[in-house]
Structures are given as C-alpha cells and as structure tokens.
Amino acid sequence: MTRSWWGWGDLEEALTAEETEALVARTAAFLPAHDFTDHAPPSPDDLPVPPSRLRPPAALARLCSTDPADRLSHARGKAFRDVVRNLEGRVEAVPDVVARPESEQDVLDLLHWCSTGGTPVIPYGGGSSVVGGIEPRFPAPAVSLDLGRLDQVVEIDRTSRAARIQAGVYGPALENQLRPHGLTLRHYPQSFTHSTLGGWLATRAGGHFATLATHIDDLVESLRVVTPAGVSESRRLPGSGAGPSPDRMFLGSEGTLGVITEAWMRLQERPQWQVKASISFARYSDAVRATRAIAQSGLYPANCRLLDAAEAFLNTGVQADGLLLLAFESADHPVDAWLDRALELTADHGGTVTARRGESGSAWRSAFLRMPYQRDALARRSMVVETFETACTWDAFESLHEAVTTAANAAIAEICGAGVVTCRFTHVYPDGPAPYYGIYATGRWGSTVAQWDELKTAVSEAILANGGTITHHHSVGRDHRPWYDRQRPDPFAAALSAAKDALDPAGILNPGVLLR
Amino acid sequence: MTRSWWGWGDLEEALTAEETEALVARTAAFLPAHDFTDHAPPSPDDLPVPPSRLRPPAALARLCSTDPADRLSHARGKAFRDVVRNLEGRVEAVPDVVARPESEQDVLDLLHWCSTGGTPVIPYGGGSSVVGGIEPRFPAPAVSLDLGRLDQVVEIDRTSRAARIQAGVYGPALENQLRPHGLTLRHYPQSFTHSTLGGWLATRAGGHFATLATHIDDLVESLRVVTPAGVSESRRLPGSGAGPSPDRMFLGSEGTLGVITEAWMRLQERPQWQVKASISFARYSDAVRATRAIAQSGLYPANCRLLDAAEAFLNTGVQADGLLLLAFESADHPVDAWLDRALELTADHGGTVTARRGESGSAWRSAFLRMPYQRDALARRSMVVETFETACTWDAFESLHEAVTTAANAAIAEICGAGVVTCRFTHVYPDGPAPYYGIYATGRWGSTVAQWDELKTAVSEAILANGGTITHHHSVGRDHRPWYDRQRPDPFAAALSAAKDALDPAGILNPGVLLR
C-alpha cells in the first residue's frame, strides 16, 4: 500500500472513477448548482519544502531523516483543512527532522538532544490527527518523532487477557499479532488502518463500542511514558484506589507531557455471537427517546448508532426521520435475549424493525472506514466536507442539537450558499449521547479552508454555549484550543501546566497543543 | 443516634451483650488460649485534650468550635489502630479547631484564613478513614474542615438520571433525598452510614457493584472543588476526550488538592429484578477460575463475592473451600438469563449451587454493615482484628495470595502466637480480582497497635512484591504512604507535586497525605 501524501489513507484505497462518479451524482442531486471541477493534487516534488534547519548529533543520525518528501508527509494531519491545503500546494510549517526511534533508549536520547537545544518535538503516531495535533504551527525548527518502528506486541497474558504492546503499532498490525492468540483489542476508530496505539492513547480515541468502553481509556491496564524528567511506568492493575490515577493524567495529554512508548492493554476474546437490527422511526424525537431508554437499560449494546434523516438516507438509502442501528455481541453467550428486550424498548417509542440480522456489520464497517476517502474526493471538487462531534447530557441534547444545526445552517447559507448538516450518535451513555455531525456544503475553490474555519467557529460556539464538550473523541490539538481553553476549569489548567513544567522543563513537547 | 467517640458508628448499633457473648464464643473456639477480658473505653471527659492553639477571626467564629470533645472526635479515623488508641486513652495530635462551613463561600473564607497563616487544613467528611487520612499527624496547629452542613441534593435531572449534590451529605441522608424521585446512587461502601459523598470522591471509594462501576469514579459527571487558587468546576458531560480528565485529577486526591464541595452524580433507577445464588466449590482454585470466567463473560453481575473457606465459615456457616455469592439486578428487565449463564460457568468449574434466591441480600448487607462493630468488640478484648485489601491481575493472583497469606501467617505466629487470615473478593474485573483480607489474631493488651503495625508491614511488603496495589478502595492516607511512594511512578509524583503547588501554594491541604 502507498500512503497518500496529501489525503486520507492509501492511494490504492481511494475511490475508483466509477465510485467517484456515483458520489458526485448523489451529491449533485441535492447541490445542483455546485461546480464539481476536479482539482488534482500537485506533485510533492514540485513543492517548495524549505531546507532543514537542524543537524542531529552523529549518534542519532541513523534515526533521523531530513528528506523533503518525508518531512512534508509529517507536516500535517488529515483534517479537511489539512487535505485542502495540500491540494492547493500550500506549504507552511514543515518539521526539520523526522526521527524514527527503534528503542525506548532512542526516545530518551532524542528527547535529551531536543531538551538541550530547546527544540520542539512533536510525537507522531499515524499522522491521522484531524485537529492540527501534529503540525509545527510555530516558527522554531521542529522534530517529528515518528514511533512507527516500535510496533511489536511484546508479551501476552492469556489468563488476564492483556498484552504489553509498543505504542507505534498500527491497528491492522496490532490485530494481526493478537489473532493467533484468539484475542483482540477490538478498538476500531475510523482511522483504525492509519493510526497507532500510542496515538489512540494520547488522544483518548473513541472506538468500536457504543457503550461501556467507549474511549480507549478503559482498556488501559498500565502505561509506560518517556518524559524529559524520566520514564514513568504505572503498575499493571485491574483497578486501584491509590491516589489520582497516573494513567488518567497521560491519557489525553496529546504528546505534551511525554511520549507513550508501551502499554498493557485489556483485550477481548473474538465475539462468537452477534445480533443486529435496524429500527426506523417516523419522528426523530421518538428515536432519541428510544435510544436513551436503551442507553439507560443496562443492556450495553456494542453498537447503538442513531442516524438522523439525512444521515440515514445518505448512508443507507433508508427514508426515516430516525434510523437506529443496534448490535449486541458476545464471546461467551447468545445475546438474542438482549436484543429482544432492546426491541421492546424501541417498540415502546414507536420504532419499526426494518431489518434483523440483515444489515451486515462488515458492510457498515467498510463504508465507515471509507467515508474519509469520499470526503477527499469531494474536497478536490470544491466542496466543504467535514465532521465535528461533541457529547452532552440527555436533558441538554434537544437544545444543543437545535442550536448546532441552526448555527450550521445559518453559517452554510451565509458562507457557502447551500449545503446539508447530518447527525448520528457514535456513542451513548446513561446520562447522554455523543452526537457526530457532518457538513456537506458548496465551496469556492481557493476559499474552502477559510469557509470551513468560519463554519467550525459558528458550530463550536453553539456547542460550548449549550453544554457540550468541544470534543468527545477527536481530541483538542491546535484547532480546538480556543474552545478547550474556555471549557477547561482554570485551576485545572494551572495544575496541568505545573505538571507539564515538572515533566518537560524545557517546554519542548508539542508546543501549542493543550497548553502554551 | 449517638456517634461513638472511640469506635465505629453509633452507640445504639453496637453489639448487644448477647451478640458479644456469641461472638466471643465463636472466636474462642479457634483461639482457646486467648484472654478475652473486656477493656471498656475511658470517658472522653477524663482525657487530657490540649487547649486549642488557634483563634479564628471574628467573621469565621460562628463556624468554628474549639470544644475539646468536638476536637477529640475529629482527631482520628476508625481504623483498628485508631480505635485501640482511643480505648487506651492515648491522646496524641488533636485538631485545634473544628470548622463547619455552611456555604461554599465559607469554605473559601476558611481556606483563605488558613492559607494566610500557613495553618494545615484537613477536609473531613464522615471521619471513617481507615488509613489515617484525617489525623493531624504533625506538630503544627490544625483545622478539621467538617463538611457535614453541606448536605443537600440541590438539583435533579430526571432525564439524564443525575443530581447535583453537596459533598457533606451522609449516605442515608443522600438516599432519603433521592428516594422520592425514584432514583438512587446505589453506592454502598461498608462505611455507607458514617461517610459522605465528598469522602467517597476524595478517596475513590469502592461501592455496591462488584463489576463495571466498582469505584465511585465512574459515577461522576462533574466536580466542583474549592482550592486556595480558586474554584474548579468541570462541565457536566457523559463522556469527553478534551485533554486529560480534570475530574480524574481530583478523584483520589484525598483532600490534598482542594475541597470537593459539590458533584453532579450519575444515578440509577431502583432495581425491580434481583436474582441471587450461592455456589460452593470443593477446591478454592476452581472457585477462582469460575469467578474469573464470570468476570470475563460480559455478564456483569452486581455482586460476585468469592469467600475462602475461613470467610465462608465465619460469615455464613457454610463449609466449602470456596463460596461464591452471585447476584444480578436490573431496573429494566428480568435477569434470570444472566444468572442461568453464570451458573453454567460455575458448573463448568465444579461449582454446586447451594442456594438460589435463598440468601437474602438485606441479611448479607446488614451483616456486612455490622462487621466493624464486631471488630471493635474484639479490639476491646485484646484481639488484633483488621482488614487490608488490594487488587492484582489474574495471572498474579495465585502467587500474590500465597505470598500474602504466608507472610500474614508467619507474622501472626511470630508476633501474636495464634490467629487466622481470611480472604474474599470484593470486586472483580476482566483482568483481575480485588482480594480483601481479614486478620483475627491474639494480642496482648497495650501492645495490639504495635502488633498490628508489624503485621501490616509484613503483608504490605508481600502485596508490593507480588504485583498488587497498596489499596484498591481504602485509599492511601498516612498509613499507606511508605508503600504508595514506592508504587507510584516517580515522574507522576513530581507532576502531582507540581500540580499541588499550583493549587495550594501555601501547602496547607492535608499535609502528609499522598504528598509532603
């Protein structure tokens, strides 16, 4: 597979000409006035990548690359605004060195070198950040610390169902190493193919499970983190009450406190029983109430994805004001009784079962994993296409949803002219849902990044004003900073900042993310 | 009810003469040589409580008490070593002022007064610490900050099933306020009657549920914490990925980073369906394997308490090498199918169902809540009676259990002469159990604190050396410090210490606990 330098994922996985044509036709059906001219990416060799300003010490030279193409491919994540800037050939900040440690000692040595010179270091997993998490958005020379060579499952404890895993392993390589043992992490963010365990941990990624272990946080038994102040390793424990959790300080620290090099992760057996159903609703408010009833039932479905009308039509072709995709799974026992009870709850709220066991999980999963490729195909055609997400309590959802969609539609009308907003729940909790929004709007080539930034500001303000979080699982990075700074309690910000000073006294770790 | 000044709970709940006689007879059956002479507590009025060294400012005088009896009742927690020191009339450090804030502003004003003078402040909930968490074990004058007047459920969100609750409310008063709304926190630590929400949060208390929400951490939606650097309030969110969790820094901070004044807590509906079973095993190792199978099954029992032979006999009269008490509950649906599958798993490992629906939960709960009263009755009779607890991964359990019981029995033989060690699991996880040990040993009056301290050192060393945590849910306090300091990663200690300096620059909050 060949990693795309400008867009999502692998070149071989991009939409075929036929798929692209169908996508454009579907999109043109609701945006007939849009200009779908294709803007192909420039060749990276033609781009003016500035020369590296850093010279690694001889002992570290074997780990360091200053190749322009290598550095360019580490310059940005894979948000819409990253992809479009690539398409436009806009080279901005590029790391001066890409360093690829092969051992924990290499990480220590590289951090030592950078601490000594005050050189910013950006820990890099799979580079799939959609929030500006890996971009050196500052004038100083920077090192991109690519953990990709630390990619081994080192140790497996079959009894406790856990494994010690190096942080740089990508999703598929991780699962390939676990499969012979009959185990799986079963953590599938949309970026699964193009992101790493360390990236998931550093950003508190959201995964496969719609309930219970929604974030990767709960799958962590212990962490090993290299900081400029030394190596922090927590004990492998199933649970503990010994002071504030050390792991919870590093989970979500986004490379600002240290470099996660290893983790003991809790694993699952492969599910033997799976049951699924799709339930349609004539009224979205009924669908929300049914979903809440399931979230509060103690049944804990593996999937509980409520699609609104636009989302349902675009993704499944179903016409319904709400479409709930429900699935239960188990490695231990049949789960029909679980689904039966959940369907009683949906029936109580006016739901109609449109399929049971019908819709294939692998079909949905494959479509889910390919969504970012569709985004890129439309981005090339001057569309403003991006997602944003949040979480709120159930009592706040109706007003938040109304405010967010109103703000989005008003901004689309003003900034773009025409477009649609879609919504689905990716995860649900007893006390609230995690709504995930998509925007498909007409843009003007050369202006779509600015158009998106305006849209994003409008919806982010609506989220903050209506009780949401600026991110449920996309993390903060640089793009969410203005709203994160307002969401976070000030005393906690002071405490976190002091903790960072203790661990990273030279202030080299991922500057601009979360903190200074 | 009248709170005991020297021992656990309320005087009216202490063992009756008849119950005491039966307990002594049961204990004498396995410790026939022990001297069971009763040592009654002294009158607190006869104890030499030193005069207060602090004079609160006039504006705060109405909140402050310097009454010797009041101060004496805030001087210690309720560990065995606290109770015996009370029985012996040993007055050591006593807080100089007991302050009872009536509002958050009072808390701010009290912290301001103490910060200005550098006066240590010990946040006090119900005073039931068993780890020296509330004892001013230092020479400086101290204020005990008793939150008991902040005892209201302020706001209820029925839709999201959550409530905003003041931290000083005791368990029963909290449940009484929730009951009219058909809701419950359903968090029942053994101290339920004599401890507060704020205490549970500050110490990461373990509650009712044997699986899933074992610690109170997972029931927290948001926290409001008064620190000397200002008030920290997190957003009410069902889930978030915006940086490291602010709440997880305060959960388990044991009064060292701030004073928790309020929390939005996730609630449950009252369970309508409950099924229970007791399963006996001829071999303890089979019982452990069966319990592990259930913990890893995804069935999530509410109770999953494995008693060893001594624990089973002492608590239920059943003779078995292992006795598993299992319960499922739901407010939404019958759970017979869940229990049926769990019993298939126990049968696979040689378990025999001895009762189904038979054993009453309220009987066990009542016995559970009265255990500390039994400890006190035996403590008066020169017994060394105390519990300690840990958690470890399943692969480590066998060796940890062997090491801990060997260390305990060797220490009992050497230090006490005779005694028994018991074990039960209080909580279980897919990757490991939380074993809870009891020691009943003969002591010599006047020496039992020192004897316990020696025993505790021996078992704590065995726990640390064999992969356990120094505490699963009793917290760290002052008593666990030597082992906590070794368990905690050094860089995390540095980060936590820096965070404390930022929030509590005068270093007044609960000195000696967790940190300096």
From TrEMBL, chains A, B:
Pfam family name, one: FAD_binding_4
PROSITE patterns xrefs: FAD_PCMH
Keywords of the record: FAD, Flavoprotein
Statement: the UniProt record of this protein carries the keyword Cell wall biogenesis/degradation: no
Domain of life: Bacteria
Domain (FAD-binding PCMH-type) ranges: 91-270
TM regions (residue ranges): none
Flavoprotein listed as a keyword: yes
Family assignment from sequence similarity: Belongs to the FAD-binding oxidoreductase/transferase type 4 family.
Protein name: FAD-binding oxidoreductase
Protein's organism: Amycolatopsis rubida
